[in-house]
Amino acid sequence: MNISIKPCTEQQLPEILDIFNDAILNSTALYDYKTRTMETMNSWFAEKKEHNYPIVCAFDENNVLVRLINIR
């Protein structure tokens, strides 16, 4: 298994959204009570980029690896 860590792009936002929403529904990792929408993720991503905050993902081939890990 070849794992790489690299910057995320807008292409990964659907997978990141899935991770966020799973955490909202099934853990206390995020203090949100409502799941996020793609619109809120686009705003989140734009704000992070505007302030030069890194957004990185672990990848296994072309898949976001975190999505494959049970984060509960």
Describe this structure in words.
This protein is of the alpha+beta class and 72 residues long. The protein has a single domain (3-68), classed as Aminopeptidase. Helices cover 38% and strands 17% of the residues. The chain has helices at 13-26, 38-50, and strands spanning 3-7, 56-60, 63-64. A 3-stranded antiparallel β-sheet has the order 1-2-3, with no helix packed on it. Helix 1 (13-26) crosses helix 2.
Mean pLDDT: 85
Low-confidence residue ranges: 68-72
Number of domains: 1
Strand segment count: 3
- Specify Rg, calculated over alpha carbons: 12 Å
Specify the structural class: alpha+beta
Would you identify the CATH architecture?
3-Layer(aba) Sandwich
Biggest sheet strand line-up: 1-2-3
Concise structural overview:
By secondary structure, the protein is of the alpha+beta class.
